[in-house]
Amino acid sequence: MEDDHFLYALSSNNAWAGYKSHQNPHFFPKLADGQTPQILWLGCSDSRCPETTILGLQPGDVFVHRNIANIIAPTDINTSAVIEYAVAHLKVKHVVLCGHTSCGGAAAALSDSRVGGVLDTWLAPLRAVRYANKEVLDAMKDERARGTKIAELNVEAGVNVLMANVTVREAIEERGLQVHGCLFEIGCGRIRDLGLGTKGRGGMGLDGQEDVVRGRHAQIVFRGGRGEMSVK
């Protein structure tokens, strides 16, 4: 008989909850009081990209919306509702749009074959990115490099949509909301800041200093130099 992954997941959850409660008896009661995340994470549904885990943060630190190929479309009411709630009501300080390497959606967009069903409709914005950058992508012969490039271009297109969002624009002007475009390198587990959004290259602040987001048990640092986002 094959392993029952759902039962294993429930058992694992029970063990995790017990460990967290033993480690900090106030952890779950505090979570139950409400949430004050500093980050809105917009990412891909890919099982290899669990945002809270790869950021080294904890439940309550990150408000999340994920979909196939981390596509940000201005007409998608689901994404728009998440952005509005996180920015206007939760008052997050950072909006992070993160793509990743080895993305199946990116590979599908680079292919001339149909995926089938609603997926072709969903991937249309990503295919539009492909056609808009056809010369650059066609010049790249390495398929993995092409996949990474279109993933980066997709993040750039999404950040442009975010920067045109009325709720986001108001928060940038009124309280200094920051928007970041990043890429998660699955092969090494690190997040690379693409230098997109409000801060320009490397995610530096207006004063050239690091921007620190402190979670419950860790902190994430947006810094310049090599343009990487790291966890301390």
UniProtKB/TrEMBL annotation:
Cofactor names: Zn(2+)
Enzyme class: lyase
Keywords: Lyase, Metal-binding, Zinc
Highest taxon listed in the record's lineage: Eukaryota
Entry keyword annotation includes Zinc: yes
Substrates-to-products reaction catalysed: hydrogencarbonate + H(+) = CO2 + H2O
Function according to Swiss-Prot or TrEMBL: Reversible hydration of carbon dioxide.
Family per record: Belongs to the beta-class carbonic anhydrase family.
Protein name: Carbonic anhydrase
Native source species: Podospora pseudocomata
